Structure to design on (496 residues):
């Protein structure tokens, strides 16, 4: 081999070695770029002199932490270190500002403001049961004439209903006229008293005294206007004293029976302003006020029944009409409020992502109060002036879960009892195993969940001991982040 050929071979080998060195250097540079602080913290190796390692974890089981590196006991993979960043701790996620911008992270400030509630619900128009008149016969007699009326007719005040012949009145009136002719005031007054006791109205007594003639017929009229709900009088009938002839319901005001969802029942109070919008009268809302909170809930809809009184002077609001009702109140007590969109609901708890200094984000468990418009009241877990994430919070929460970060609970949440009452319903077993049970269950009223057939996981295989398909049971379930978990199965009857 010539010297020139050897030189070319050596030169080629040097070029290959140089390229390999450049590749290794580029790989190390890229690895360091992925170390903590370059983006979301998922680095697997701690560089010498770099940030301290807080603990190691398995990304597939992030809640389990280890104090030294090694193989994961859950997966065939190396444990990943969790680093301590400057200005942060093990309960925060750090995101590069550029990454935050790409994720569309938007921050808002926790504010304290008066609680203005605006509950939206549906209502049905009904009669005002306080505006009712009962027309009765004050004495026995015979029906000679009846007006051409029928139930559901609308009549005015003083409208004629029927004319009665009362034979007993003729004798009382003749006695009165005879005693009056004698000129004895005491006897005349006694005769007047007997006519009153006989059921004669004062107007008829005055008419007899003025005319000197017997009036043994009387016209029955309505004491108020409204709708005839019942009419029980016909020509030729014989009436007893106190017999009901008609029932009339006024329509000057009507009631609106409003179904307020159980979760918003605490926002409604007597005297609250109400505005009802009717599909039959678009653009013409009717103002009213809450007059009563009825003592019983609508069992099927799990809703509080609220009575709203509306003016109906023109009579256009008819019983049976439906309306969209807005129950408004303002000037309530001051409360911490955050946008409802900022709250992450997991089933058993609610989370908010708090933004801290230098791109750190911390998931915090909060206790929610009522909703107020587009905001939700925070009872515990946040302080006024804190910055929270209103958009993009689900991505940050997912990253926190991958890193094994558990949301910090509020003091109130820690003070609350860990046990929560079970939600119960009747059911029939369709299929059963050691881990699951398939049930055809009735409604879980406390969850507003209708009856259906579905599979539930079991908290303990012993729950189904001695049970089989077709057995009737009383099931008790608890809400978890993964869904409903059966914790009670009590047999209640024989097989289906």
């Amino acid at each position: 081999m010539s010297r020139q050929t050897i030189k070319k071979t050596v030169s080629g080998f040097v070029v290959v070695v140089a390229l390999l060195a450049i590749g290794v250097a580029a790989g190390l540079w890229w690895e360091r770029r992925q170390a903590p602080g370059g983006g979301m913290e998922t680095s697997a190796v701690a560089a010498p002199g770099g940030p301290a390692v807080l603990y190691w974890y398995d990304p597939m089981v992030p809640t389990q932490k280890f104090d030294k590196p090694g193989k994961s006991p859950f997966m065939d993979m190396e444990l990943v270190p969790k680093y301590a960043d400057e200005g942060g701790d093990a309960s925060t996620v750090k995101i590069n500002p550029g990454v935050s911008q790409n994720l569309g992270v938007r921050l808002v400030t926790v504010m304290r403001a008066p609680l203005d509630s605006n509950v939206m619900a549906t209502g049905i128009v009904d009669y005002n049961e306080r505006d009712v008149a009962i027309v009765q016969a004050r004495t026995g007699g015979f029906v000679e004439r009846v007006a051409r009326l029928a139930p559901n007719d609308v009549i005015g005040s003083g409208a004629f209903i029927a004319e009665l012949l009362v034979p007993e009145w003729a004798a009382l009136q003749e006695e009165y006229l005879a005693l009056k002719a004698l000129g004895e005031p005491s006897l005349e007054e006694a005769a007047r008293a007997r006519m009153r006791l006989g059921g004669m109205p004062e107007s008829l007594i005055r008419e007899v005294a003025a005319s000197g003639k017997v009036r043994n017929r009387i016209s029955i009229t309505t004491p108020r206007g409204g709708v005839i709900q019942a009419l029980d009088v016909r020509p030729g009938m014989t009436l007893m004293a106190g017999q009901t002839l008609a029932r009339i319901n006024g329509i000057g005001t009507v009631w609106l029976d409003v179904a307020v969802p159980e979760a918003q029942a605490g926002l409604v109070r007597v005297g609250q302003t109400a505005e009802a919008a009717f599909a039959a009268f678009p653009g013409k809302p009717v103002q009213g006020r809450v007059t009563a909170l009825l003592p019983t809930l609508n069992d099927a809809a799990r809703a509080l029944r609220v009575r709203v009184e509306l003016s109906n002077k023109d009579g256009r609001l008819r019983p049976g009409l439906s309306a969209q009702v807005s129950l408004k109140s303002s000037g309530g007590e001051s409360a911490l409020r955050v946008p409802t969109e900022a709250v992450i609901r997991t089933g058993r708890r609610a989370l908010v992502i708090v933004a801290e200094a230098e791109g750190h984000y911390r998931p915090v468990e909060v206790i929610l109060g009522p909703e107020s418009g587009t905001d939700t009241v925070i009872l515990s877990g946040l302080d006024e002036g804190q910055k929270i994430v209103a958009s993009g919070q689900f991505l940050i929460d997912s990253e926190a879960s991958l890193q094994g970060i558990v949301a910090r609970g509020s003091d109130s949440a820690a003070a609350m009892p860990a046990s929560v009452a079970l939600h119960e319903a009747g059911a029939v077993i369709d299929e059963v195993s050691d881990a699951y049970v398939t049930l055809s269950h009735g409604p879980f009223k406390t969850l507003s969940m209708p009856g259906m057939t579905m599979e539930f996981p079991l908290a303990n295989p012993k729950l189904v001991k001695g049970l089989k398909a077709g057995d009737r049971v009383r099931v008790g379930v608890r809400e978890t982040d993964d869904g409903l978990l059966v914790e009670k199965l009590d047999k209640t009857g024989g097989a289906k």
Notes: The domain at 253-329 is CATH 2.40.30.170 (Elongation Factor Tu (Ef-tu); domain 3). The chain has five domains: 3-93, 95-115+333-415, 133-244, 253-329, 423-495.
